[in-house]
Amino acid sequence: MFDDHEIMSTIEMVKNENLDVRAVTLGINLFDCVSHDLSVFKKNIREKIISHAANLVQVCDEVGEKYGITVVNKRISISPIALVGAPFSTEQMVEIAHELNNIAKEVNVDFIGGFSALVEKGMTNGDKALIAALPQALTETQRVCASVNVATTKAGINMDAVLLMARAIKKAAALTADDDGLASAKLCVFANIPEDMPFMAGAYLGVGVADAVINVGVSGPGVIKQAIERNLKEKKHTLGQIAEIIKRTACKVTRVGELIGREVAVNLGIQFGVVDLSLAPTPTVGDSIGEIFQSLGLTHIGVPGSTAALAMLNDAVKKGGAFASSHVGGLSGAFIPVSEDLNIAEAAHKGYLTIEKLEAMTCVCSVGLDMVPIPGDITEECLAGIIADEMAIGMINAKTTATRLIPVPGKKAGDKVYFGGLLGEARIMDVPHSDLTDSFVTFGGRIPAPIHSLKN
Question: What is the secondary structure of 218-248 as a DSSP string?
Fold first, then answer.
């Protein structure tokens, strides 16, 4: 139960500290839509998605208005298309992407995720067809998001898939050169992908999840920042005490998210899944992860001490969320996307945050190299190497990590890019040795799983 103090502090979060429900995502299982006939398959997925999602946006708006808490994004995640669309060719996969885009427009959701494949241990014909379709599919649609899981702690890293993804990212960026490579911003490469996260571009519905489920993502970097600053004004605190402040604040934020998510689920007659407490920033001043670092006494994110600060922040957020709800899932921690956070983008532009330091910080954050604009002339081999390095972090540390890299055609380090909306803007980060064509990534095969994966 909330006491009076908690209620008043939560109201303050909503009014003045940018607390919102960042995403309500309706997950829909499409396995009962399977058909070898493309027209039948498209008809089946249309009927299934619309039957569940027709009132999603309206219900989210009504629940948000009831509690005075904005539900910023309404989204759909679906079973991996590489699985349910396994019989189809690359050209047919593109047709499916168009159908998904049209359905998303019809029910008025912001994005639909699940144009995805799980290839950590090998690739089927359906997987290969979907990966080959990614550049065209993401270029020709506006609301379709894609993810490909190429590594797990149990399976190792599929290096054939890593190289294919580097090529797909480069091609997708080239096809949207007029928009600074925007198609690549809708594509994530994962290690240890969760089955239940509400955040794009990686969201999909796992095969072990219910037929339809509501997952909610709550984000409150502004709330965390204000809580730290408010308490530090009152008296000096140790880092352990600051971690406790973050934990308690995260607990309140998680309760808000679960309240909204459960009511949306009840009103739609759909099972509630998880609340994902990921501190996902926006380009709005005061809604920044980078500003939290400054509240902790660091001049900029990226300076020495940043990895330790992020580790403390991430752990405290998870502890607070786990106390508030028995159903915390997804990523649940801190994102550090470059273009989506004005403060992080500024630190990268001024040289405080390099791509090497960013990679080091991903060892303790919740996602990885997220929304990182890089020079458009980077070689496929270098790009694949960056992806492989990030996958290794996830594999060895038994954590989720990912890359959302945007090689911006025709632009170099220091040039400005603008993606718009929540995707924000930034300067292109320098990638040392981006012209390398080292053969390591071309050996192919699978990097074996680490010894500590043998836990059965």
Answer: EE-HHHHHHHHHHHHHHS---HHHHHHHHHH
Q: CA 238, CA 362: separation in Å to the nearest integer? A: 25
CB-CB contact of 390 with 362 (8 Å): yes
Sequence-distant (6+) residues with CB within 8 A of 362 are: 336, 368, 369, 390, 393, 401
**Cα–Cα distance for residue pair 191/401, rounded to 1 Å:** 5
Per-residue model confidence as pLDDT tens digits over 395-449? 999 999 999 999 999 999 999 999 888 888 899 999 998 889 888 999 999 999 9
Question: Which stretches of 56-110 are DSSP H helices?
Answer: 56-67, 81-84, 90-107
Domains of the chain: 25-191 (3.20.70.20), 218-453 (3.20.70.20)
pLDDT of 231: 86
Instruction: Check pLDDT > 60 for residue 364.
Output: yes
Beta bridge partners of 149: 118, 190
Q: Which string of b and e fits 336-361 if b means at least 16 CB within 10 Å?
A: bbbbbbbbbbbbbbeebbbbebbbeb
pLDDT at 92: 98
Token pair of 68 as six digits: 């005075």
Calpha distance 335→289 (Å, rounded): 8
pTM: 0.92
CA atoms within 13 A on the CB side of 444: 4
Phi, psi of 246 (to 5 degrees): -60, -45
**Residue 446, amino acid:** R
For residue 4, is pLDDT > 60?
A: no
